Amino acid sequence: MATATAPDHASASKAAKRPADQLPDATLIGWLKDMLLIREFENRTAQAYQQAKIGGFCHLYTGQEALAVGTIAALNHDDPIVTAYRDHGHALARGMSPEACMAEMFGKSTGCAKGKGGSMHMFDRPNWLFGGHGIVSAQNALGTGLAFAARYEWEVLGQSVEGGEAKKKVALTYMGDGALNQGVLHESMNLAGLWSIPVIYIVENNGYSMGTAIERGTTMASDLRKKAEAYGMRGEIIDGLDIVDLYNQFKPLVDWCRQEQRPAFVDLKTYRYLGHSMSDPQKYRTKEEVDQYKAKDSIDRLASQLMDTSTDRAKANGGRPVLTEQAFMDIQSQVKAAVQRSLEFAENSPAPDVASELYSDVYLNPMKNLSPIADYTIGAKNPLL
Ligand SMILES: Cc1ncc(C[n+]2csc(CCOP(=O)(O)OP(=O)(O)O)c2C)c(N)n1
Ligand SMILES: [Mg+2]
């Protein structure tokens, strides 16, 4: 995926006031491509689920794409992130291959977690994604711990535990609005405020926790920053549907948290187009409401911004749009092909070898006699016992 590098046209850098203005055209096109990839990936995931090729719970990210892509764009590659179960978008935005992501959902051995995790448990250590987590809000304690560990390396150890230099890092912990009222978030935020832990709590505020509208389940829903204030941390409200605006507000916050090694909290407004999971009759909202959000679609919005010839960016390009119609269609074809390849890869990959995989990767240091049962239910002997 595209990352932020030096500007590629001089006039943009001269006039630059907003962080996104300083990015090269290729980075913005990369965002569009990543968002299209997620959208297509989710559409094909829904089909595969209906064909019973994917089992278990499955929650799609359709509508929320700008949030994962825009926030991850503001990070360094080695800043850790952790999220909830609606996690395919984060995995792809972080750079996981669509093949590893799709194969994971198909329960195949080539998946990112060897097919043992499924849709809710995308994990990618090389890309600093520490999971998809199914227990609402549980990831917030882990995200806080990841940030604590990074600060400890930088401040106390003076080096990374994996070798190499310690850096000032920021960890992101994403959650749905339904996670706001779980005790673990408040314990985590209290500690982060007290110990100055460089973690950003991002509420992916799509307005609903399953069928419960945020106003029905959460106090101060109209200004969640008050929750941050209670824990002595900076709080922001950001529109998550316009990726450029999102980046312009979020990047300075990340830079500040990294520099000051302080925590923050963001109410990031977004919307999911589809049901909570694959089975949701959606009686709690109207079709008109969904259509209102679709009219503000973040992918359409970025595509038309990039095709507009009257923007400063286009003017700096001598009046040429950053993206032509043909280039846009080419990107769409590339994305379709990439997702198709991931489906074929998942389909053709082998299932895990149950006897050898059932106990692997469960404990870091397995201890003899830890398991209460000596035998697997299928009859294979536990090698540890
Ligand atoms: C501790 C806990 N309680 C309940 C559930 C069941 N559950 C799964 S998803 C969900 C709704 C969460 O909504 P939200 O946090 O807004 O995330 P979204 O689905 O909107 O992304 C609930 C209650 C759970 N997984 N964990
Ligand atoms: Mg929600």
What structural class do helix, strand and pairing data support? alpha/beta
CATH level 1 class label of the largest domain: Alpha Beta
Summarize the main sheet.
Answer: 5 strands, parallel
Q: What is the number of strand segments?
A: 7
Termini gap: 45 Å
Radius of gyration: 22 Å
User: Mean pLDDT, nearest integer?
Assistant: 91
What shape does the CA trace take?
A: globular
CATH topology of the largest domain: Rossmann fold
**Number of helical regions:** 15
- Helical amount: 40-55%
Strand order of the largest sheet: 1-2-3-7-6
Compact description:
This protein is α/β, with parallel strands linked by helices and 385 residues long. 44% of the residues lie in helices and 8% in strands.
Report on the structure:
With 385 residues, this protein is of the alpha/beta class. Helices cover 44% and strands 8% of the residues. The chain is built from 15 helices and seven strands. Strands 1-2-3-7-6 form a five-stranded parallel sheet, with helices on both faces. It has a two-stranded antiparallel sheet with strand order 4-5. A hairpin with a 2-residue loop joins strand 4 (208-209) and strand 5 (212-213). Helix 2 packs antiparallel against helix 4 (88-94), helix 3 (65-73) packs across helix 10 (243-260) and helix 5 (98-105) packs across helix 14 (325-348). The protein is globular, with a radius of gyration of 22 Å. The model is unreliable at 1-14 and 370-385 (pLDDT under 50). The structure holds thiamine diphosphate and magnesium ion. Thiamine diphosphate is lined by residues 59, 86, 134-136, 176-179, 204, 206, 208-210, 276.
